[in-house]
Amino acid sequence: MPDVDLTDKQAAVDYLKKKAEPLHDEWRKENAMHNFNRVYRKSLWTGNQPVKFTFADWKTDKQADKKQAAEIGNRAWTLAKMIAGGQNMNVYFSGDPGTGKTSLALAMVDKIRNESGKTALFVSTDALAELYDRRFDDKATQNRLYELIDLMQGNRQLKIDPVDVLVLDDFGTEGGMRTDTKSQVRVDMQKGLFSVADARFGKFTTIVTTNNKTSELQEMYNEKLLSRLITRNPEHRLTFNGMVDVRASMI
Ligand SMILES: Nc1ncnc2c1ncn2[C@@H]1O[C@H](COP(=O)(O)OP(=O)(O)OP(=O)(O)O)[C@@H](O)[C@H]1O
Ligand SMILES: [Mg+2]
């Protein structure tokens, strides 16, 4: 028998509420996880290959300068904590290939997922450029592109909210890979990304990883887009230059 006077209506209601609390907590968690997965599985990966990485996978001994690796890992961890706690910001990871930018961006997403009900989406900018290239080839490609744009910037008519956390991975590759010199990125993609950046600025979190220096991005992208996407806040900018190419040392 419950230790409560069930003839006392208020006491009975309080008792039942308290009893249901752990169950509600579990439902809330399950619901958040379901919501996260529903959005995150729409991510656009390079070569269609989803990648997983957590802070526990980040090994400082992969780097010659262990101190630098520890510091950069800690800074990314702190930013993830702030975002999970409700702050929105643009984050900028720049540096040479194979130094761990994508990995740490994914680790941040993993931590944010574990600590908040926020949604997230990973978009390989290069794969996005390919969708733009092939958008008129078939309806499925076009729909896939529109679906991603709706998730990145929201669509009021369709009642789709922008994702809370967007990873724009390898930003700039789509400009650099096409020719030897840094060329302007195609106009339709610039316009698409501009409206994404404009819709998200100040309200949602966008993590950009790039091999390019800001000056190189300026040759490829319109400055109005860059000012909405690339943060100038030194606390939110992590530079991976001078670190070892871990990918190359794995083969
Ligand atoms: N500190 C680290 N600990 C464990 N694995 C690492 C570390 N740094 C990099 N790696 C591994 O090295 C590989 C390359 O890392 P990652 O893809 O994150 O590099 P990147 O900086 O994004 O490179 P790119 O500029 O070419 O996109 C991945 O398989 C990643 O898991
Ligand atoms: Mg990368």
UniProtKB/TrEMBL annotation:
GO biological process: DNA replication
Gene Ontology molecular functions: ATP binding
InterPro entries, A to Z: AAA+_ATPase, IstB_ATP-bd, P-loop_NTPase
One Pfam family this sequence matches: IstB_IS21
Domain of life: Bacteria
Span of domain AAA+ ATPase: 87-235
Protein name per the record: AAA+ ATPase domain-containing protein
Native organism: Limosilactobacillus mucosae LM1
